[in-house]
Amino acid sequence: MKQVSIPTLKRLPSYYNIISTAIMDYGEKYISSSKIAKELNIDDTQVRKDIAATGYVGKPKVGFDTFELRLHLEQFLGFNELKEAYLIGAGNLGVALSKFEGFRKFGLDITAMFDNNPEKIGKKIKDKQIYCISEFQDMVRKNNVKFVIITVPATSVNDIIYVVEDSQIKAIWNFSPVNLKVSNDIIVLNQDLATSFVTLVHLLNTN
Amino acid sequence: MKQVSIPTLKRLPSYYNIISTAIMDYGEKYISSSKIAKELNIDDTQVRKDIAATGYVGKPKVGFDTFELRLHLEQFLGFNELKEAYLIGAGNLGVALSKFEGFRKFGLDITAMFDNNPEKIGKKIKDKQIYCISEFQDMVRKNNVKFVIITVPATSVNDIIYVVEDSQIKAIWNFSPVNLKVSNDIIVLNQDLATSFVTLVHLLNTN
DNA sequence: TAGATTGTTAATCGATTAACAATC
DNA sequence: TAGATTGTTAATCGATTAACAATC
Questions:
Q1: What percent of chain B has a predicted confidence (pLDDT) above 70?
Q2: What is the pTM for the complete model shown?
Q3: What's the rounded Cα separation, in Å, for the pair A39 and A15?
Q4: Does A75 lie at the interface with B, CB-CB under 8 angstroms?
């Protein structure tokens, strides 16, 4: 996959959404960088640079072919290939995430949940079964799962992190409010919700 | 409040967590910038710069007084003053967020939830009542609430956003997968979970 | 053709990192 | 004092924005 910077990468899904809307709601064949930019309140040069970074080229005078670009971004961002993920921590947040239909569109499929609470184990959330954490490593190996989503409380992280570390898992999406550190070459994305809120409060207080 | 850059602001809560741990678990009186930096895999100069930006000064040779700095960061980040917030959309994610105890520590207190589903209205999630969306504007005015958390599905955003816009709300924390645009001077933080996942996938594919 | 839009080079801006003097 | 650590200036790096030629 082509290398793009993290800031660029974070903007691409927004472009994708805008292009999708242009197709679905307005049937537009072409879209200009300035139109996308205006929608997001950013610079239009940045939009062109970002799109160029993914390897797609537009048509001078006309803009970007909406169908082509949407397909291109889908492939570039990997929306078209389903990525199986397991989720540890069948609490409120875990259940919410596993029920969230929107992830499918981005290629994320949560196929099983894990917990250590005997009352939860064996139950189903929609079509997703809750398994005992002791089955985690075997199932990861058997199904070649690379992604895990962690939604256990802060106090339980230490109980489960070694299970994840000692598995074939390649990437962790961590929702627990703990800065995860893993020893080996597992990639971690700490999704600390409180940090985001702090930013919002600060923006409000300084504006 | 002192102006600090967004990147700095996003790192400060992590510093706060590390300092808290140093106090609680190890009873340390002083902590050095390099120790914090090592914990987060960042540069120690950056830690000193960030802390300096908040207006706190350390002690050459010894480091930073853990108690003082923790208190200072609490005040700087506003953790000590409770911020009342309403939540719209009593679905899985909404319930998960409203039950999340961790927010209290950061000064966020979700005191009421709103929905348009008659089956949900009137029920309680823990101590939080679910109200009809029609009561939103009155309650915001009466209680001088400034923050709203939006957890409705993408398809319902258009039904509720005008209610928020036409209220005294000052800041929106938006979890729906729609890039919110509001006309007036309301601050919006779009917390698009899918965007984060895209980043994780890309990191895995390029590393 | 003229106008609109892309693609790209150059300029600017801001954040990160390096170097080092000041300090207890 | 010597050593360790902060605070701060300077250098580097990378992302954003401006300018403009190329293009249909």
A1: 99
A2: 0.91
A3: 9
A4: no
pLDDT at position B15: 96
| pLDDT for res A182 | 85
Q: How far apart are CA A132 and CA A120, in angstroms?
A: 9
Distance (Å, whole) CA A31 – CA A58: 10
As a dihedral over the C-alpha atoms of residue A41, residue A196, residue B10, residue B62, rounded to 10 degrees, the angle is 160
Burial A122-161 (b: 16+ CB within 10 A, else e): eeebeebebbebeebeeebeeeebbbbbbbbeeebbeebb
Among A residues 42-61, those touching chain B with beta carbons less than 8 Å apart: none
The pLDDT, as a whole number, for residue A1 is 60
- If residue A125 lies in a helix (H) or strand (E), which one and from where to where? strand A124-125
Q: Which residues of chain A have pLDDT under 70?
A: 1-2, 184
Q: Does A102 touch chain B (CB under 8 A)?
A: yes
Each residue of A176-203: pLDDT tens digit? 988 888 876 899 999 988 889 999 998 8
Angle at A112 between CA A107 and CA A115, to 5 degrees: 135
Please report residues of B whose CB lies closer than 8 A to that of A146.
Answer: 204
Longest distance between any two alpha carbons in chain B, whole Å: 63
DSSP state of A59: B
Instruction: Name all domains of chain B by residue range, CATH numbers in brackets.
Output: 6-77 (1.10.10.10), 83-195 (3.40.50.720)
Q: Between chain A and chain B, how many beta carbons pairs sit less than 8 Å apart?
A: 163
Q: Using N-to-C axis directions, what is the helix angle for A33-40 and A44-53, rounded to 10°?
A: 110
